Amino acid sequence: MTTRLPLFPLGSVLYPGLVLPLHIFEDRYRHLVGDLLDGPEPREFGVVAIRHGRETGIDGVSALFETGCTAVVRQVEAHEDGRFDLITVGARRFTLVELGDQAPYFSGEVDFLPDDPDEAGEAALIVPAVRGSFQSYLDVLAERGGAQITVPDVPDEPLLLSYLVAAAVVVDLPVKQQLLEEPDAHHRLQAERRLLTHEIQMLRSLTATPAPDLRYAPYSQN
User: Fold this and answer.
1) Model confidence over 8-30: pLDDT tens digits?
2) Contact, 72 vs 91, CB < 8 A?
3) DSSP assignment, residue 42?
4) How does pLDDT run across 152-184, given as a tens digit for each residue?
5) CATH number for the domain formed by residue range(s) 3-112
6) Which residues are registered as beta bridge partners of 64?
7) CATH 2.30.130.40 domain range(s) in the chain
8) C-alpha distance from residue 53 to each of 19, 50, 103 (Å)
């Protein structure tokens, strides 16, 4: 059974468990936030990465990726001029079955995707290798002059680790999208292990590093 969700197209990928702050200034997304605030909790909307187009402007988005992640609103700051600042947290992955009307804002019919538990323990077996590669990747980023990313507590829970690595690694949007689309933590961690090995080798061969996207962080109740 599909569910209708308001959609927020972005030029980036959101993952479950990661924090996404948003500054809302366009009229259609002010309307979206207003509808969320008038409705029941959880106040949830879908974030979908833009395949072609741009975030702003009525004709900005021409195509979306089919897999996205819901964002649950945790904090809202309303400004006198109608703008909003939101703190949201990624919650559930979904497949976009059908794109609905674009007025007053994007919406769509979605099917939610399961994040099955690691019952066979396959994902847990490669957690130490991925954690080690991830730390090496962060060290090489800092050594090569990139921004230093500090992750105080790298999780050892496979699913959360898989999403944290996906959010932190500095790669093109289609690669990040593919990590979101992996069917489970085991496949995602396997892909990340290969990706981290490649990125470490590449960074060591370069004299400059790309700037990481620091908007996302693991969500904490504190």
Assistant:
1) 999 999 999 999 999 999 999 99
2) yes
3) S
4) 678 889 999 999 999 999 999 999 999 999 999
5) 2.30.130.40
6) 50
7) 3-112
8) 24, 6, 17
